[in-house]
Amino acid sequence: MENQSPARICVIGCGHWGKNLVRNFHQIDSLYGFFDAVSTRVDAFAAQYPQARAYRTYDEVLEDPKVEAVAIATPAEQHASMAIAAFRAGKDVFVEKPLALTPADGTDILNVSRSTGRIAMVGHLLLYHPAILALKRLLASGELGHLEYIYSNRLSMGKIRSEENALWSFAPHDISVILLLTGHLPVQVSATGGAYLQPNIADVTVSNLLFDRGTRAHIFVSWLHPYKEQRLVVIGSKKMVVFEETRPSNRLLLYDKQVAWNGQALEATQSQPVPVSYEPDEPLRLECQHFADCVRTRQQPRTSAEDGVKVLQVLQACQRSLQLNGELVQITGSAVQSIVAM
Predict the structure, then answer these.
(1) End-to-end CA separation in angstroms for the chain
(2) How does 73-85 read in b/e, with b if 16+ C-beta sit within 10 Å?
(3) Does 66 share its domain with 171?
(4) How many domains are contained in the chain?
């Protein structure tokens, strides 16, 4: 790797999240250029990163043979068309979550990337977080026992969107982690929520997932919450783990699960948590470096377009249940269908 020149990556969309991609690709020497539909934003980034090329149109990016790859951080409804255009222009593509707004569009991204021989990576950031990787190792080692239950809270006051609801804005993070830990799609889901600020755009949702072998998960997301909370709790048959991103320290804690019969009653004993250590690397830096490495080595990304499609399948099933006021929705292979009460 040290003998190879840096990947030449152009960031598409330099707004709320794209600016972080620009910063990180610059810091790993892979920022070749950037484009944003807002011309004043392009001017500001051109002044901040004079060594990178400022593009004025997306076509200009696609037509430049020196651009090897694009990192797309535009609104989600543009992801599919922009990614497919980049593949056909011979570029590798990193797409921020969600990969697209439907599994069908996500599958189109996957299929075109395969037919053109290009790298397709989705930005499931938490799967590059050292704490999540440490949690996965704990589970894989057997220390937690059988995976029984997972719950995730992702709550804050804003950022409120109009093009997607809180489920689609927040839950992809948690769904990607839950699929990593379980290794499977759920067999059925249900979801409920409420739209209080804008018609038909849910500000708060609770999604319930059922997996084979009885593992369950629930995901609570809201952008209408008085304080920020990002908490993941994993319950195994032997031990339990809590990951709390908003804590200043000891963000990953391991608990013994001390439950035993005392006569004819079950008693639980509160155990003291043990901090789990992990490398303090910035997840976004690791994610950007991984994409740059994939561009250079042609390896398949850890978060591939196929993984992105699976997350979209779960999101679509939850959205359908949300629209049906919590009706169970089944996921079978690539199909999503409502369960009709007998």
Answers:
(1) 59
(2) bbebebbbebbbb
(3) no
(4) 2
Q: From residue 129, give the alpha-carbon distance in Å to each of 10, 89, 114, 147.
A: 24, 32, 27, 20
What is the average pLDDT across 317-335?
89
Quick check: 339 pLDDT over 80?
Answer: no
> Is residue 3 situated within a structural domain?
no
Name the residue range of residue 52's domain: 9-124+283-302
Give the domain CATH number at 192: 3.30.360.10
Element (H, E) at 47: helix 39-48
- 36 and 87: one domain? yes
- Reported as a pLDDT band with limits 50, 70 and 90, residue 338 is very low
Q: Determine how β-strand 224-236 pairs with β-strand 147-157.
A: antiparallel
Provide the residue count of the chain: 342
- Residue 28, token pair as written in the block: 């790993």
Residue 4 lies in a domain: no
328 within some domain: yes
Question: For position 334, what pLDDT does the model report?
Answer: 52
Helices 79-88 and 103-116, axial angle in degrees (round to 10): 10
**Of 33, 39, 42, nearest to 62 (Cα)?**
33
- pLDDT (0 to 100) of residue 331: 93
Structure tokens at 269: 């004993």
Looking at the structure, do residues 326 and 236 belong to the same domain, yes or no?
yes
Q: How far is CA 118 from CA 18, 21, 308, in A?
A: 22, 20, 16
Quick one: tokens of 205? 């949702």
